[in-house]
Design goal:
Rossmann fold, four-stranded parallel β-sheet, alpha/beta, globular, GMP Synthetase, Chain A, domain 3, Luciferase, domain 3, single chain
Length: 585
């Protein structure tokens, strides 16, 4: 049997991962080639406002992963699940790679004390049934206590940062099968109940390399900088996957550190020449509004290579606001890379071209509501969409979400994806679930199409995402994209920026639209008056009168673990009455 130590693998190759490679085998290669160069840095802001840098070299990371894998193989078997319940840290990286090296199926999750997500964590653990839970010494009690509160069979709990009675050596680890499972990526739950996407070594390595090619992530000249959670699909590939594929260093920080002070993210970008980073749309607007002029004086952003904007529709106003705020710091407009992706495709599907600012097109709003993307004439009501660019090493088609038939160019339909980066299904769910492997089957790969549940259109060859199929608000037979209505709502001064959610509920006479909005901090506006003004504004701009407008306190809108507003959770909370006690207007 071929082993990791018998063959030093090439770090770059074709999109189709060669046999026997994994993120863990690539770590062994880079440890041999790069040795004492820094592999990963964690900026710990719990120790101080400026953060304390905790680093591991490639050799140190490889040795720690070896020790953990050795410990794991003493009581686990190939294919057992290893759930990671830890905070963002270098230890998280060790846990993920150690599980893979040991032949386990990693399940990147989060510490039990993440506010508002205990129910999701319990459901995921029940679904994946881990043999072992990996955490840190300071998280042992919390992990054990949380597991005791659930009905799942108790797994072993192991701290990855403790001194073990085994030594790292030149152990020969079996090389994984390309189509063997590497990890389960649980969806965020923004549009559906969290499900574990089964990703093989081939899927993960293919997409990591696609990301390296798309964003110019290279050995020695670039580094990834990320505050995205490592249990999030983009956070994992940006923070661990792509660096393992390219031999690039990564800089990590905690999401809370970013939310407390977004300038920390930008200072990390400034300190990392050739930096590549990613964030959802809201984070760019948040940074532009929260970073002070004094903080900007410390920023040097001219050396940033790529800033990825994805995971939710990209708003032109956000791009303009962010570049307007940081142009004086050397930020170039062409570094902004609008992208589209989802966990079921590992993460990345398409991205705008390098060296060009993302294309923006104003489409006729009424025509778009009927499913036709037509450029708006002067004076017409329009919706401006930002291009998501072109597919990266995979195929994309736009199909009728009901019949599955291809739609004509310029017509809105469901985005479907085919490629070696697409996962093989959901853990523990039937193969024919209407998401993976849809016809027609590709004769070369033998794989079908992934139904993303997202709506989009091809215009002049570029992909534009218009919204999510399940979020579409259909009132009186007319389609409304919730993000359009939310932008109208957020114009009102009583509404906190980027904190409105619009969704549909079923009533006896059909669907009706509901608006949830967080009250702006310090606002003294009469909320009854504001409610009426919002109703009139939405009616005038969209021909739709909201059935209900509910104001909530700042921070009360339900969000996913990556910070996006979850319209699905908003709808559920509204319908089950859990928002009633917080109603302000």
């Amino acid at each position: 049997m071929e082993t990791i130590s018998e063959t030093v693998v090439a770090a770059r190759g074709t999109d189709d991962a060669p046999g026997g490679e994994s993120f863990a085998t690539l770590l062994r290669y880079w440890a041999w080639r790069l040795g004492d160069e820094v592999a990963v840095t964690y900026l710990d802001h719990r120790a101080g406002a400026d953060g304390r840098a905790i680093t591991l070299s490639w050799r140190e990371l490889d040795e720690r992963v070896d020790v953990l894998a050795t410990r794991l193989t003493s009581f686990t078997g190939a294919g057992d699940r290893a759930a990671i319940l830890a905070r963002q840290s270098v230890d998280y990286v060790v846990a993920f790679l150690g599980a893979i090296r040991a032949g386990l199926v990693a399940v990147p999750l989060f510490a039990p004390d993440l506010p508002g997500h205990a129910g999701r964590l319990a459901a995921v653990l029940a679904d994946c049934a881990p043999r072992v839970v990996l955490t840190t010494t300071d998280g042992l009690d919390a992990a054990a206590g949380f597991l005791a509160s659930t009905a799942i069979e108790r797994p072993a709990v192991l701290a990855v940062d403790t001194t073990a009675p085994v030594a790292a050596g030149d152990r020969s680890w079996p090389r994984p099968e390309p189509d063997g499972l590497a990890y389960l990526q649980y969806t965020s739950g923004s549009t559906r109940t969290p499900a574990g996407v089964m990703l093989t070594h081939r899927n993960a390595l293919t997409n990591a390399r696609q990301a390296c090619d798309a964003y110019a992530i290279e050995t020695g000249t670039t580094s990834t900088v990320s505050w995205l959670p490592l249990f999030h699909d983009m956070g994992l590939i940006l923070g661990i996957g792509a660096p393992m594929a390219a031999g690039a260093s990564s800089v990590l920080m905690d999401p809370l550190a970013f939310l407390e002070r977004p300038s920390r993210w930008l200072r990390a970008l400034s300190a990392s020449p050739g930096a590549i980073s990613a964030a959802p749309n809201f984070a760019y607007a948040y940074s532009a509004s929260r970073v002070t002029e004094a903080e900007k004086s410390y920023l040097e952003l001219s050396r940033v290579v790529s800033l990825i904007n994805g995971s939710e529709p990209v708003l032109p106003s956000t791009i303009a606001k962010f570049h307007g705020a940081f142009e004086e710091c050397g930020l170039r407009p062409e570094v902004h890379r609008s992208s589209y992706g989802l966990a079921e495709a590992t993460v990345l599907v398409s991205v705008t071209e390098a060296g060009k600012a993302p294309r923006e097109v104003a489409f006729d709003r009424d025509q778009l509501a009927t499913g036709l993307a037509t450029p708006a004439l002067p004076g017409a009501t329009s919706t401006t969409l930002v291009s998501c660019g072109f597919p990266v090493g995979q195929r994309v088609r736009i199909a009728d979400p009901v019949t599955g038939a291809l739609v004509e160019p310029g017509r809105v339909g469901e985005i479907q994806v085919n490629g070696p980066n697409v996962g093989v299904g959901y853990w523990g769910r039937p193969a024919a679930d209407g998401v993976f492997g849809l016809p027609p089957i590709d004769p070369e790969s033998g794989a079908g199409w992934l139904a993303t549940g997202d709506l989009g259109v091809r215009y002049d060859g570029e992909l534009f995402m218009t919204g999510r199929l399940k979020d579409l608000v259909i009132v009186d037979g007319r389609n409304h994209y919730p993000q359009d209505i939310e932008q109208t709502v957020e114009i009102h001064p009583a509404v906190r920026p980027h904190s409105a959610a619009v969704f549909a509920i079923e009533r006896e006479d059909g669907e009706a639209a509901v608006v949830l909005a967080e009250r702006a901090k310090g606002s003294e506006t009469d909320l009854v008056v504001a409610t009426g003004e919002i109703r009139r504004a939405v009616s005038a701009a969209h021909g739709l009168r909201p059935y209900d407008v509910v104001f909530l306190a700042p921070g009360e809108i339900p969000r996913t673990s990556s910070g996006k507003i979850s319209r699905a959770r908003c709808r559920k909370s509204y319908l089950d009455g859990s928002l009633t006690v917080r109603r302000l207007g």
